[in-house]
TrEMBL record:
PANTHER family, alphabetized: S-ADENOSYL-L-METHIONINE:CARBOXYL METHYLTRANSFERASE FAMILY PROTEIN
SUPFAM superfamilies reported for this sequence: S-adenosyl-L-methionine-dependent methyltransferases
Native source species: Populus deltoides
Lineage: Eukaryota, Viridiplantae, Streptophyta, Embryophyta, Tracheophyta
Keywords, comma-separated and alphabetical: Magnesium, Metal-binding, Methyltransferase, Transferase
Protein name: S-adenosylmethionine-dependent methyltransferase
Chain coiled-coil ranges: none
Alphabetized Pfam families for the sequence: Methyltransf_7 (PF03492)
TM stretches of this protein: none
InterPro entries: MeTrfase_7, MeTrfase_capping, SAM-dependent_MTases_sf
GO biological process, one term: methylation
Gene Ontology molecular functions: metal ion binding; methyltransferase activity
């Protein structure tokens, strides 16, 4: 997951392997979101995907999951789609590269699918690291409770990345093809710090600041670290799709997948979230802060969940469910 084809990709990879902190073993929250959206995807395909038109030019239906990582979730998601279009035999292949830019030949893909990926930026806004800029994000790792200049820098970078993403998908899709996307969303009128995602990142930021106060990492290291993630509103995403002009919006709505069955109490939920965040962000954190502080960082992170469960757990997890059709 990196930048567009015109820039040098940055490394925002999840933990690989089958170890305790591997993404494959700690991505069931995303899997839960995929299953929770299965009915909506099946309905969209049944109502909006015209197989007669698509198969008039090719006997093969090509389906792509953009922004996937290691683990079983891609197979779960794509099997859901395959079952929905009643095709039992298929070939699978992995294509490395940034999902923001071009990956496939022009007019070659019938169905694009993306789950819990489109909140990841193509790169961190450069002005966040400029001490002379009003967008310098000193003392923070994200845009929670940040000045408007910081929030605007994130929003502008997100818009640039989505513009590249939609342009690439438009070129790669056949006319009448479908794109289905599920990713975190920020309901209009709710402060980002009060959302599920914002609350998770705020506790991570607090843990890093504690380490900086104790001299285990430097304040400069915290100042120069910013999470490459932005959670848009429905209105923002709708405006970006309309600006692109290549797609009809078949469906765009906020949805809440609820709580995973394994999270029966606040303790189990806290532990699951900590493992989830570690699997997804450990490599990025090691790259910036070094490996020596990682265990202590996540131990502190876990303790904050135990001390302040009310900070995250009441926050409602909200996803944006989007179905687009290529004009």
């Amino acid at each position: 997951m990196g930048a567009s084809a015109t820039t040098t990709p940055e490394l925002y990879a999840m933990n690989g392997g089958d170890g305790r902190f591997g993404y494959a073993k700690n991505s069931f929250l995303q899997g839960h979101d995929i299953n929770a959206s299965k009915g909506k995807i099946s309905e969209a395909i049944a109502e909006k995907l015209d197989l007669k038109v698509l198969l008039s030019t090719s006997k093969t239906i090509r389906i792509v999951d953009v922004g996937c990582s290691v683990g079983p979730n891609t197979f779960l998601a794509i099997q859901n789609i395959i079952e929905s279009i009643e095709r039992k035999q298929y070939f699978a292949a992995g294509v490395p590269g940034s999902f923001h830019g071009r990956l496939f030949p022009e007019g070659s893909i019938h169905v694009f699918y993306s789950s819990i990926a489109l909140h990841i930026l193509s790169k961190v806004p450069e002005e966040l690291l400029d001490k002379n800029s009003p967008s310098w994000n000193k003392g923070r790792i994200h845009y929670m409770n940040a000045p408007d200049e910081v929030v605007n820098a994130y929003a502008t970078q997100y818009a640039k990345g989505i513009e590249i993403f939609l342009d690439a998908r438009a070129k790669e899709m056949v006319c009448g093809g479908m794109a289905v996307m599920i990713f975190p969303a920020n309901p209009t009128g709710i402060p980002y710090s009060q959302t599920f995602t914002g609350a998770m990142f705020e506790l991570l930021e607090s843990s890093l600041l504690d380490l900086a106060k104790e001299g285990k990492i430097s304040e400069a290291q915290v100042d120069s670290f910013n999470l490459p993630m932005y959670v848009p509103s429905l209105e923002e995403m709708m405006e970006l799709v309309q600006k692109n002009g290549c797609f009809d919006i078949e469906k765009m709505e906020l949805t809440s997948p609820g709580v995973h069955a394994s999270m029966t109490n606040t303790s189990s939920m806290g532990k699951a979230i900590v493992m989830h965040v570690r699997a997804g962000m450990e490599r990025m954190l090691i790259q910036h802060f070094g490996s020596e502080i990682i265990d202590e960082l996540f131990n502190r992170y876990a303790k904050k969940f135990e001390e302040f469960p009310h900070h995250v757990l009441p926050s409602k997890k909200v996803l944006l469910f989007v179905v687009l059709k290529r004009k």
